[in-house]
Amino acid sequence: MIIMKNKLKIAVIQAAPIMFDKEKCKEKAIRIIKECAEHGAEFVVFPELFIPGYPYGMTYGFTVGSRNPDGRKDWKCYYDNSILSNGSEMREIIETAKASNVYVSIGYSEVDSVTATLYNSNMMISPEGKHIITENSNLQVVSVLSGAMLIRN
After folding, report:
1. Which residues contact 4 (CB under 8 A, 6 or more apart)?
2. How far apart are CA 124 and CA 139, in angstroms?
3. N or C: where does the chain have the smaller number of CB atoms within 10 Å of the terminal CB?
């Protein structure tokens, strides 16, 4: 997939998520998307794992060969606040992108609906409300030159 434009107003979001609270993270993302669109942004880019927050430094009570009870509780909370790529939270974000007529790139912890595995994922949404890229491996931004952006999946 290639997206080319001569000029594109991009809003790069540096906002703290509401740690381990998918509902509040989703609500905050929706508010930010609307605000950015009102100020003329065409592409709103959220950080990695905006939903439910990046668990930097957390061990979940794990050491080789064991996990403590508090760590299990922390992991369960993180797991419970991860979302499905086609779940209600993401559908609301997609609808907001469509209603705001903007592209959105949002990082989230994705629960695989079949295996229950968690993935560090990113979804790119078009102004038409389509997910144009859902990626849980490598999204390669090839170049950004003179305001034109090339993304290759």
Report:
1. 148, 149, 150
2. 10
3. N
CA distance 93 to 31: 10
- Where residue 81 falls (left for φ over 0; alpha for ψ -120 to 50; beta otherwise) is alpha
Share of the chain above pLDDT 70, in %: 82
Q: Give the integer Cα–Cα distance in Å for 127 and 69.
A: 44
Cα–Cα dist 126/133, whole Å: 9
Mean pLDDT, the chain, integer: 84
Rounded Cα–Cα distance for residues 113 and 82 (Å): 11
pTM of the model: 0.81
